[in-house]
Predict the structure.
Amino acid sequence: MLFLLHHVLPEHIQVNAPSSPSLYMEATAHLDGERRHDGMLIVLQTLEKAARTPNVANFNQLELNEVFRMENWTTFQNVYGDDKDPFANNDGQVVDAAWADRLLKSTVEIDNIIKISHTLLNVATDLQSQLNSSQERVIAAKRSKGIKSLPDELVARIFQIAVWEQYDDWDITEQAVSLSKVSRRFYNVALGTRSLWTMLGSFSSRLELETLIARAGPNEGFHVSLYINPLLPAPKLNEISVLLIGNINFYTAFADRSQYKAFADHTQLPSAIADASQWRSANAEGCLLFEVLKVCSPFW
């Protein structure tokens, strides 16, 4: 018996000591358990094999219903597969005892199928949740690794695109400031990318403008939005204008200063901006320091 057991048991529970009764009993119990569950494991293996069928993910509910319709079940065929009416007599009583026996067995079988299916569904749902959680962690790790693997120069370029796409006259620094708060690396890249801080506007405070000008430096091309509103106190607008002119080389997209002078007179732009002595020629400077000057008015 022990010789036979030694050749039948799986390798991980081989009996190496014939004189060990306790080990023999433990191994026998383990083998009986494995044999008892063999049928259940076949169900699981068959289901997993079916799940790997090519294009199974593309099957719609109608196709699955057709595949698993009752007529395809052996349980159904055992009971209803022939044309013989089991209630053929006038009293409606079963006249075929063999059919009644098959009905009872099939009922037990279908109950077991439902029990197994519910268990499989519960376990599969738990496994699905675990797999999805792991997949989310993998995706998060890839994303994190992805941004970490990019050089600062490329990250800076991405920041530029993000900032310009989210440009808002009312809060021109929101996107740049938000990026600088993500991490220490983002902070260093954002502050080192001077072009992120070149958008100036009349809605900003003096302190904000001073901070932006300092971060951008004197050699960047600034983008300025001036909102001309008669309700805005002249000293406030003058203060912003003087700040801009006093810190950067001021230039506009107008063809010449006379055009801008007429424009300034029409909009009553403060004389601090309109004063021709404050302007410098683009040719003299060698670059266009103001790429865009956008002036808005409630009258237009």
Remarks:
- The first strand starts at residue 199 and ends at 201.
- The chain is about 60% helix and 5% strand.
- The chain has three domains: 1-52, 82-149, 152-296.
- Residues 1-52 form one domain.
